[in-house]
Amino acid sequence: MSSAEITNKTAAELSQAMTAGEVTSEEVTQAFLDRIDAVEPKLNAFLHIDAEGALNTARAVDAARAKGEELGPLAGVPIAVKDIVATKGMPTTAASKMLEGWIPPYDATIVERIKAAGMPILGKTNLDEFAMGSSTEYSAFGATRNPWDLGRIPGGSGGGSSAAVAARMAPLAVGTDTGGSIRQPGAVTGTFGAKPTYGVNSRYGLIAFSSSLDTPGPVSRTALDAALLQEVMGGHDPMDATSIRQALPSVTEAARSGASGDLSGVRLGIVKEFATGEGADPGVVAAYQSSVDALVKLGAEVVEVSCPHFKYGLPAYYLISPSECSSNLARYDSVRYGLRVGDDGTRSLEEVMAATREAGFGPEVKRRIILGTYALSAGYVDQFYGQAQKVRTLIMRDFEAAYESVDALVSPTTPFTAFEFGSRTQDPYQMYLADLYTIPSNLAGGPALSVPSGLSDGLPAGLQVMAPTMRDDVSYRIGAAFESTQAPLLSDQTPDVAGKEVAQ
Ligand code: GLN
After folding, report:
1. How far apart are CA 78 and CA 58, in angstroms?
2. What pLDDT sits at residue 502?
3. How many Cα atoms within 13 Å fall on the side-chain side of residue 467?
4. CA 268, CA 218: separation in Å to the nearest integer?
5. Tell me, what's the pLDDT at 497?
6. What is the mean predicted confidence (pLDDT) over 96-121?
7. How large is the average pLDDT for residues 221-236?
8. How far does the centroid of ligand 1 lie from the alpha carbon of residue 360, in Å?
9. What's the gap between Cα 76 and its chain centre?
């Protein structure tokens, strides 16, 4: 099997090929590492590559398979991990100078599970610093470029994970989604990404941004691949106080049943407030309308529902998440973690702390810490933070009311396709708008995913499917059914990187 044949396969196909003895995990892992060598200089999707570690795992899996040991479905399938997730013995930076050089002494629970499943870890992927942003432009180590157009952003914060999967540098990746950081990068790179129900995937070992919202999840090319990874990562973890005990209904079964393309009997709600496309690219609106037509052709019944508080999601999120971030990031105090600047024996502790935080944090992180500290300050806490929490409750009620009459909600994933570098960093609000459609499900906690929905002017767009809490299976079924109507986004369609210049 040629390298290009390997890297173009989905995780499920690779698993099958390995089980059938057509290819070894070592060959698969080497093919992805070669692909990384070839395209990484153009993309900057990785902050760390662990070729040796990945190959060692691959060989161990091959040996176990040769002995006839029972292996899980993703054994031997390589994966990339967003660099905000702790990996034992492997640098973890959150794309911040504050944590440069930190080597965690432990694995995040989801990483422990990925390792136990026999998945070689290729490396750590780039992101906006501490996962704050929608473009990776706020990474302290340079932005990731979008494989579809190297002059454009790959989304954020998890642009590295999505770009790596889009450019065939990894068949799967781990992302984290606080306000859309799995789904929006998925939409703008033509990949699949799912934010599970909050609490289904452990946060233990995630570098905290906004604890009531942070949700790790799968990044992939297909619904089935995401489901397979979800089942490796998910499940109760006593190390995370917000971890849910109950198990999810099987998302792999849902993805497989959805693949037949039958959605008869499924009621889908179009969120009226998002359907007008206000502030959205006309191309995104057009792609969304044809997505809805495709869902109707699959037999779904589509009705309009009103979620009147969704439009307040953005301001509520940009008070709640900075508030939690200002508290979580207080630990980077030059004493307990990471960077220390100016400790030359002449400065007071407070001066060293100030110099360290000044040097260690980038502009967006500082903006959020300042905003969050203000929103939580004694005189303003009710007016800002308290008010935002009330809005959060109203958004949950909007979802509950909608799910009385529909099984799931659909919307575009993000209002615009991949934008050009520098076009939204001048005005923070322009960057925040990228999260308009993704934020409500973070605030309410329910599952939401983004599935590729074709191209708009040559750039990928995404369809978002939201479902009730613990009904991730419903979103996977719909996502997989929709996917079956779409032409696969093959590597030779990704113009700059995956196709012409470095075709293997
Ligand atoms: N773009 C959003 C933000 O900047 C989402 C971040 C995320 O989901 N981690 O906060």
Report:
1. 8
2. 34
3. 24
4. 24
5. 65
6. 98
7. 98
8. 20
9. 22
